Amino acid sequence: MAGLLTVALIVVVLKFMVIDVLVDWWWFRSQNLEIYFILRKAHRYIVFIFFTIVFTVVFAVNFWIASRFIGFINQKKNGEKRRDLIRLLHRETMRLYRPLSLLMAFPVAITMFQNWEAALMFLFGEASGVTDPVLGKDISFYLFRLPVYHMLQQGVLLVSIILLIGVSFLYWYAHRLLAAEDQALPRGARIHISILGLATVMILCWGILLERFDMLYTATNAPVFFGPGYAEMRVILPFIWLSVIFLMATGIALIYSANRKTGWRFVFIFGLFFVMSFIAKNADFFAQNIRTYIVMPNQMARERNYIEAHMRATLSAFGLDQVKPIEFKPKPVTDFDSTAPDLVRRLQNIPVWDREMLSGIYEEIQGIRTYYTFPAINVDRYGVEDRYRQVYIGAREVDPERLPKSAQTWINIHLQYTHGQGVAMTPAAQAGDEFMTWFIRDVPPRSDYGLTIKQSGIYYGLGGKHYVIAPNDTGEIGHPLAEGDAIVHYDGTGGIPMGSLLKKWFLATYFDDHDIFFTTKTHSRSRLLFRRNIMEQANHITPFFRLDPEPYVVTTQEGIFWIQDAYTTSTHYPLVEQVEEGFNYIRNSVKIVTDAYNGTISYYAADLSDPVLKAYRRMYPGLIKPLESLPAELRQHIRYPRDLFRIQAHVYAKYHPQAPEQFYRQEDFWAISKVPSDQELVPANPYYLTLDLLEPGKQDFLLFVPLSPFGRDNLRALMVAGCDGDNYGKLFVYNFSQEQHVYGPAQVNAVINQDINIAQQFTLWGQRGAEVVLGNMIIEPSQGNLLYIQPVYLRESGPIQIPELKRLIMAVDGAVVMAASLEEAAVKLEAELSRKRLRQQQVFPSPQEVPGLELPGPELLETKAPVPPTSETGTPDPGDMTEPEKETTGP
User: Fold this and answer.
1) Residue 175: its pLDDT value, please?
2) Residues 204, 195: Cα–Cα separation, whole Å
3) What is the DSSP letter of 548?
4) Which listed residue, 80, 194, 448, 716, has the most CB atoms within 10 A of its CB?
5) Which phi and psi angles does 515 have, rounded to 5°?
6) How many CB atoms lie within 10 A of CB 101?
7) How far is CA 460 from the centre of its chain?
8) Residue 585 pLDDT > 50
9) What is the pLDDT of residues 472-509, one digit of tens each?
């Protein structure tokens, strides 16, 4: 029985303490991250050892001092027996204090070990150059130091109390044992105890002083604003200082009185003042009465500065302090010209297909084989035949679980169906009732538009990924051929080499799969590829980054790559309320690039001003490279992430007012505009457009989101993020006048639903058994007009649902048309605007068009109009009105 237990223990130790670490080491080495792996594993233990040594030394020094003073208790009058007892106690104390010091250091060291990443940020964080607007401390103090100060204060306070009690007991016990006839401790012992007592009091004062900074996280003044207000800064803060002063005075008086054996009057007085100030600091009575009777009747005047501080801090925390507002005045619809070259060029890049709809088309048309799938369709931009084109692109990945159950054997899943093949790409702008245009299609991928690729294998991507062994003697399924499938052999650097039997055994144990060890289909060049999901891989390497949920694929001449946005976040930014996602600070500081063939992962710094990123770069040197080192062909595909932009839009919608008075009155709060979705109105998703909006004549890849007044459906602003070149990361807000109504997406949708011609067409299609699906509405500020575009799809109700783009709806200023293409819709829209304008002129002619009516000249308009004579009753006499005035008063 004992032998079995021993064997089981050895297996457990090998599994969790040797094999797991060893396989992880091999995997990190395949990524060329050996140094990072060592640092990542060692840092937590370095932190633990560092704090263990520091506090062990502190305790040991104090016990050593105590042991020295024990010897001074010996008096000459003590006999030989007493002196022997002193030496024995001294020797035993010296033997005991070392292990006791180590044991007492563990509580603090373990606390720091459990929070080792916070401890590292404390050590490696540096000043950000930005200060909080209330207390004037650098933001890095709150991000890196304040959380650790709280942990240290609590731990150090605990051990200081233990040390004070332990040393005092040691002195007392030695004194009672060796010098019972003496009533006073030696002077050195009293000084030592006094110093420890004073240190304990100072640590208590330190804890109270930290409450000053904790006030910057108070939610007492919510929902008006977050952070301290008048009551906190004028009442609670003074009581914090008074508590510190009286606590320190009490401690000093207590130590003085204990050593001098004088009266305790000052101890009682200072202690009473401390208790009163401490209660006043923590009780709500004083602060609440100040809020009720002093602040609330004059809240704006009393708390203006604190509201402004909250606004400034919030905009800074979410990267919104550099937003550039631009006044946008829509041109009159009379200026709409469907033949304008700028409009025609812009319409060629409008993404009329929705990603959700394209997913089904890519699956059905470009899936080719049962085991191919497109986990995600992404939007991007490429140079196609020397033109800057917005496109949709998806990676054709392999999914062996789509095979029939009988074919899901170990060999098929792990040896043969190992990788996907290439990408499929379509232009963003296409017409309805036409063949789908494919920039890249089929397996192996081919292009009629000059887009080439050398290595199209996709071993790393999205979705669930089994481990695979490649190359192998069985051969991997490559592209389909007329007579079967081409057999290929992996020639990359991904995964772990498994040429030896020992490695095979380690890997079989790690994956708990004996087939890895017993298979005869491997050879000396075989490699085991695992962690092939790019998000799982990035999370395993850098769990401290928050990953964007939408990694996207990029194809170059050399191969296929994945780009993943990563964020640094914090919950410790002062004066800022946390968003729903659970943080109050965020930066898109890192771009992660993964080779789809080799699985090699690289990190690039996208925001060098981020203090959190700076700390990580110092913590793990060489891990995060400068963005300039990213190859140019990949760098031109980086984009501003939608997830971050959505969060920023939510925050900016509330915090855009410039003046605290506006924010306090909440008179101009915004919200993300509502758009139709499945018979409901939901907040719009940000969308990408390629326009020359920022610089005329220069096409830019831009990210848009519409904003509406809170509780209303009209359009108030368009928020735009740049994605290309020098405009990357710059945020713009195109504001519309509050004095002019601008249609919002929900209002345009209502106009579309009420259009008779469109409704009749939808009804006709519905009678044929097809489902009419309206796509996402896009707002495009074309030619100074707000152009609304919405695709219309037909989807059969049968088992094979391949949506078809049938029509495109285009609207501007309440006029709406539907056509097969955007160009045709623009022509129809111009005609519809002319028709409506003509009809309006016929029914409600302007004064210039009324025959016989003479309008006063400018010189007369500047003078005050004469007052007509009045009758005795004081009312104007109708007989004194001129004939033209009588004519214009009719209907």
Assistant:
1) 65
2) 14
3) P
4) 716
5) -60, -30
6) 21
7) 24
8) yes
9) 999 999 887 877 788 999 999 999 999 889 999 999 99
Q: Are 62 and 116 in contact (CB under 8 A)?
A: no
Cβ-Cβ contacts under 8 Å for 772 (sequence gap 6 or more): 762, 765, 766, 792, 793, 794
User: Which distant-in-sequence residues (6+ apart) come within 8 Å of 321 by Cβ?
Assistant: 312, 315
Residues comprising the chain, all counted: 891
pLDDT digits (tens, 9 = 90+) for 821-877: 899 999 999 898 888 878 777 777 766 555 554 545 444 334 444 444 443 334 344
Q: What is residue 722's three-state secondary structure? A: strand
Q: What is the DSSP secondary structure assignment for residue 533, as one 8-state letter?
A: B
Q: How many whole angstroms separate alpha carbon 731 and alpha carbon 721? A: 5
Give the pair of three-digit tokens for residue 847.
């004064």
Percent above pLDDT 90 for the chain: 56
Tens digit of pLDDT for each residue in 100-111?
A: 788 888 888 888
* Residues near 745 by beta carbon (within 8 Å), at least 6 away in sequence: 673, 674, 675, 676, 684, 706, 713, 715, 777, 779, 788
Q: What is the mean pLDDT of the chain?
A: 86
Express each pLDDT in 379-413 by its tens digit.
999 999 888 899 999 999 999 999 999 999 999 99
Running DSSP on this structure, what letter comes out for residue 855?
P
CA distance 418 to 397: 9
Q: Are 265 and 250 in contact (CB under 8 A)?
A: no
For 713, counting Cβ atoms within 10 Å of its Cβ (0-12 exposed, 13-18 middle, 19+ buried), the class is middle
**Residue 776 per-residue DSSP state:** -
For 746, the 3-state DSSP assignment is helix
Give me the phi and psi of 203, to 5 degrees please.
Answer: -65, -40
Quick: pLDDT tens for 600-633.
999 999 999 999 999 999 999 999 999 999 999 9
In one-letter notation, the amino acid at residue 745 is P
For residue 648, give the nearest of 710, 584, 591 by alpha carbon: 584
AA letter at 524: S
Contact between 104 and 55 under an 8 Å Cβ cutoff? The reply is yes
Angle at 197 between CA 191 and CA 198, to 5 degrees: 90
Q: And the tokens for 733?
A: 């807000």
Please report, in angstroms and rounded to a whole number, the separation of the first and last CA atoms in the chain.
108
Residues 6+ apart with CB under 8 A from 852: 884, 887
Q: Residue 286 class from Cβ within 10 Å (0-12 exposed, 13-18 middle, 19+ buried)? A: middle
What average pLDDT score do residues 442-455 get? 91
Q: Which of 338, 105, 330 is nearest to 822 (CA)?
A: 338
User: Which of the given ranges, 179-188, 563-572, 697-706, 840-849, has the highest pLDDT on average?
Assistant: 563-572
Cα(435)–Cα(604) distance, integer angstroms:
40
Adjacent-strand bridge partners of 325 = 733
The CA–CA distances, whole Å, from 843 to 89, 721, 774, 840 equal 113, 44, 34, 5
Percent share of the chain, pLDDT over 70: 88
Tell me the one-letter amino acid at 863.
Answer: T
Take residue 852 and report the two structure tokens written for it.
């016989």
Closest CA to 623 of 16, 32, 118: 32
pLDDT in tens, 266-284: 889 999 999 999 999 988 8
- 814 vs 715: CA distance, rounded Å: 13
Contact between residue 438 and residue 389 where contact means Cβ atoms under 8 Å apart: no
What's the chain's Rg over C-alpha atoms?
Answer: 38
